Amino acid sequence: MHWYDPEAGKVEEVGTPSTDEEALGMLSGYPGSGRLVERYVVLREEGLGVKQALAFVVHRLRMFRPRHPNLGRTREPRRFS
Q1: Quick check: helix, strand or coil at residue 3?
Q2: pTM reported for the whole predicted model
């Protein structure tokens, strides 16, 4: 599966986790991972599969941590005097 590694900040190809322990291991280990783990647990309790819950959590992370932070921002006008 394609995996966005939040620690490295890049997408890589990894094996799909088959257990909650493997998925939680992928999510933990960097600042802010506690919220991701909590969200993953809630999604699993709601009935999502391991891969579905993991994909949803990481997709949400990427939405709030864009690769191009200045995209869509206008530049300050340059003043020539």
Answers
A1: strand
A2: 0.68
